[in-house]
Amino acid sequence: MIQKQKNQNLKVYAPNIHLFAYHLKVEEDKFEANQLLWDRCQKIFRKFNINSTLKIEERLGYRVDLLKKTNPQDILLKLESNITLENEQLKITGFAYPLRLHDTYILCLNLRRPEKEITLQVEEQKTEAVSQKFFQSLNPDGCFLPKNIGCSLGQTLLLTLWYPEKKWQFWKSTPNLQELRELADKCLENFIDRDSQVTEENRIRATSFGDTYCNLPEFNQAGELFNSPIFEYGFPSQKEDYCHILIWIFCDGKTDVKLQNNYQKLIDLFAYRNKVIQAYQDSRQLYQEIVKKHKEIETYLDDIFEEMPVKGKLTKEQVNKFKQYIKEIPNKNREYSDLIRYLNIYRLTIETNTQNYQKILNNIYSKSPEDKIDFLQTFLKEDCQLFTEQLHADLEYFKYGAQQLEQANSAIRARIEIDQAELKEREIQAKEESDRRLNILLAAIGTGIGVGGIIASSSGQVSPEHPLRWPLQPEASNHFHPFISFAFLSIIIGFFSGFLVYYLFQFGHWFTNKKNKSN
Questions:
Q1: Buried b (16+ CB within 10 A) or exposed e, 50-75
Q2: Alpha-carbon dihedral of residues 193, 196, 198, 204, nearest 10 degrees?
Q3: SS3 sequence of 84-122
């Protein structure tokens, strides 16, 4: 308890804040979107009563500084102002450095308590250590936090301060490491003043649930960089309110020099880091959209196959309905495949920027191989690998959705083709049967006509000498009239002929079917 109280009262020397903000460049006609970083910078200037104006001049090139200048050597806009801390006016200095890295606008903004300043005696003297609340004064109203910057590709905040020189030699001892961690935590708490970052409504709600007003970024890791301890807060996999903050406590006189020498490399390093994280976080939103679409497809296909009878034939109405499904499925497949393609683009973005991050690390290491850079490599070994593996797993899983649609489309087509072929065959058979019956009918009619012709030809047997008399007439003979005999015989012959024709047709049809089946 005494140790924590001591750390809270420990003053810090030359505290700095470095903002590295990244915003994707969009089409030239979207001027306001491309101005976002520069507008945010001006708002921060007003917070600190800085009278400077950041003027931007677009230039061609892959990596170019954008400060509009009169001196070609100037790439930084120098800043100077004063803040009040515990009723004392303190001078602050810094710089604004606008640039563009390919398709990314970058704002590097630094505000600090200078290590030295000119006194009334016109002598440059070392400044005094200040209270840890100085970090609170450097972030009024949370102006440096992501929710107020709002850049599309994320940001990194780097806070630096000097550890008391008398403790430099022993900073790696366990007690000092614990003290350094507690000091970093306290600086973070002062920088993000939770009481000032919350509305009254959220304050009441948080109090009701026993929560803090404003969540601080969680501690991620501790390490060493350029011979001094550094602490990282915030997890890249965090979906909401992600805030990446590094607190670097200088315990070596060369650390600050090495920071300056590698400043440009760190700008690029954080750019690729934030691109990887933003791509992953965007992929998580797309992931939810694909999950929803995947479930819709499964339900859609289930409904289709529930309508398809396992046994029996498709009706004409069912065939038409399934033909409509065949028209719909390619569109659904295209929409789903587009989502998968976008997810794959995020994977490629992560892999590309991971490689760029590795190149910058290799460059830093080649310039100072004696320095440990394991702290910066952790992002590669853990986060980037996790993101890549997650995207690969997602793509492998979701590709079956497209395959399901293709297989369903093929299955429906096959079923329709089979049923249509069978239907066509039935129609042909029905037509053949109809034709056969028609031929029989025509043959029977022909036979009847033939019989009628025979009867008609026998009418010559009726004459005045041999009139046709009915049996009850007085003049009727006891014998059949020749006409009656001829007519009766013709009917018997006609009936026998029709019967013979019918069965000859039936036998021919049976023989043809048997022959076709045997083939």
A1: beeebebeeeeeeeebbbeeeeeeee
A2: 100
A3: EECCEEEEEEEEEEEEEECCEEEEEEEEECCCEEECCCC
| Of residues 270, 230, 222, 267, the one with CA closest to residue 252 | 230
The pLDDT value given to residue 217: 92
What CA–CA distances, in Å, run from 440 to 326, 368, 497? 44, 105, 12
pTM of the model: 0.77
Whether the CB-CB separation of 162 and 14 falls below 8 Å is answered with: yes
Q: What is the pLDDT of residues 150-182, one digit of tens each?
A: 999 999 999 999 988 877 777 888 788 899 999
SS3 percent helix, strand, coil of the chain, rounded to 5, is 60, 15, 25
- Tell me the sheet residues that pair with 117: 125
Which residues does 284 contact at the CB level (< 8 Å), separation at least 6?
239
Q: Beta partners for 160? A: 16, 248
Q: Encoding tokens for residue 513?
A: 């079917």
Taking the C-alpha atoms of residue 511 and residue 515, their distance in angstroms, rounded to an integer, is 6
Report d(CA 181, CA 431) in Å as an integer. 93
CA distance 247 to 229: 9
177's tokens: 């490491």
Query: Among residues 187, 194, 165, 183, which one has the least CA distance to residue 17?
Result: 187
pLDDT grade for 422, boundaries at 50, 70 and 90: low
What band does 205 get if pLDDT is binned at 50, 70 and 90?
very low
Residue pair 181/231 in contact (Cβ under 8 Å)? The answer is yes
**Sequence-ordered list of residues with C-beta below 8 angstroms from that of 471, at least 6 positions apart, any chain:** none
Distance CA 516, CA 81 (A): 103
Q: Please write the tens of the pLDDT for every residue from 458-489.
A: 555 555 665 655 555 555 555 555 666 666 66
pLDDT digits (tens, 9 = 90+) for 216-242: 899 999 999 999 999 999 998 887 788
Give the model confidence (pLDDT) of 250-259 as tens digits: 999 899 999 9
